[in-house]
Design a protein that fits this description.
18% strand; 108 residues; 2 helices; three-stranded mixed beta sheet
């Protein structure tokens, strides 16, 4: 059976119509996420001060979780067991938006 087009129908698919809107949306989202990440990283450096800046480095901020790289195993253990809650509270105080849900430490 042969398909017959109705008169006045367009050949544009809905996907082609949505593509420019999706690109605009993604362009608007990227800068906000980058600004949030920058604000969180700057707050981390302000919180830990110059002595700890050499030993720790924020690596990523994704879905409310700040991942921080730590140079030594001893410091990693200390931060994980004794300082995580205090640092998390201080970071939440410094950065209201975006909400920081957790701080994760990793060696390396």
């Amino acid at each position: 059976m042969k398909r017959v087009r109705k008169s006045g129908s367009t050949t544009d698919s809905p996907i082609k119509k949505i593509a420019p809107l999706l690109e605009d949306f993604l362009d608007k989202m990227r800068p906000r996420k980058e600004r949030e990440k920058t604000a969180v990283f700057q707050a981390w450096y302000a919180l830990v001060g110059p002595r700890m800046q050499d030993l720790t480095s924020p690596v990523s901020f994704y879905e409310g979780v700040l991942t921080v790289s730590v140079k030594t195993h001893t410091l990693y253990t200390f931060l994980c067991t004794h300082e995580t809650e205090r640092l998390l509270q201080e970071m939440r105080r410094k950065v209201r938006k975006p909400r920081i849900k957790n701080i994760r430490f990793k060696i390396g």
